[in-house]
């Protein structure tokens, strides 16, 4: 079942969840321990993005007309009921998914790349720089930069650069310069390679390289793909549309489920429903067993990048120097989780589920065979958690409504599933000894 939404009903405001939380999210700090202000972000972010990042009081942030015009090329996105998958699972649950893979980039990250490129063009910026794990933020930003005639430079985690070549090819096709990280073109990259010449890289290192490069140019700004408040703000277009679509079929989610690498897609879906105040709806954040930042991390101030070039954010973290095992879902290989999502978890408003990559990929194959949609490796973790939730309904005989976000497969990663079916994908360890070392580097509070 496909549940569409008339284009004229596409939301014209993003949902800022901070005023509705009922508790404070600890503010970001400078490296010297002072509260971060806009001036501390001015070198790497545009004025509008800084304003959105620090906004604590306005519940709704208007979406500019040009952004809505570009959104309207693929939004509102459809909501589907996965009836064939329900049948194969034998569950009385109704399973709904918001499909975010229908735009030119094939991924939900276009929801934030377009606003960031728009604000940059309005401020006279010439080049946008980002870091990417799987390539999907890089693809989205390359597409958005073309809309506004901007240069695009992407630091891509080396393991993904080598394994997910299609994502790199798409970025280059769209005109972006793509650099494998760690690289020899920045001091941070050189340091990382000196320590480990065979390093597979991490998003934390790629972020540091991107920041270093951005700081060398007066006409460049950095674009975030996850974690930051303004990114989750932009992604709430997902949940706002889903609210309207669920009403169309007289349904309301008993469970909202999403994978968390940094937390933007999960937050984008969940926050508008959280604002409703129905606390009997379970919010389930799904982690990879190789980097379980929420369930195994510590709630501390930490930098978002490996070199400590950003502000300090209060979040669940495995430590910025932690390098997760080389799992195939590169977007899950990050040490920290969004400060807002972290605060919600701290307040017991969010539950977690943790799965290995083989568990996740089996659910992805089952879903693809039932529904005819190939998910991304990251979304596979969501599918495993959804399947478990649906099977619990089968066991109890209770009918529940389950809602999740299917984030698309923008880098055309089918090689992962081919390798899984061939038996060459194995579960990767969680390096707890590295966690102790990484967390030991954090300053005591």
What would the keywords be for this entry?
four-stranded parallel β-sheet, Rossmann fold, seven-stranded mixed β-sheet
Care to describe what's here?
This protein is an alpha/beta fold. It has a domain at 66-106 and 228-440: Rossmann fold, CATH 3.40.50.1100. The chain contains 18 helices and 15 strands. The chain has helices spanning 38-41, 47-54, 65-71, 83-89, 110-122, 136-147, 158-163, 165-173, 187-195, 203-214, 229-248, 264-275, 293-296, 339-346, 357-371, 377-396, 415-421, 432-440, and strands spanning 2-3, 13-15, 60-62, 79-81, 94-99, 127-132, 151-157, 177-181, 220-222, 255-259, 282-288, 298-303, 312-317, 351-355, 401-406. The chain has a seven-stranded mixed β-sheet with strand order 1-4-5-15-10-11-14, with helices on both faces. A four-stranded parallel β-sheet has the order 8-7-6-9, sandwiched between helices. A two-stranded antiparallel sheet has the order 2-3. Strand 12 and strand 13 (312-317) form a beta hairpin. Helix 6 packs parallel to helix 8 (165-173) and helix 15 crosses helix 16. The radius of gyration is 20 Å and the shape is globular. The model has no long low-confidence stretch (mean pLDDT 94).
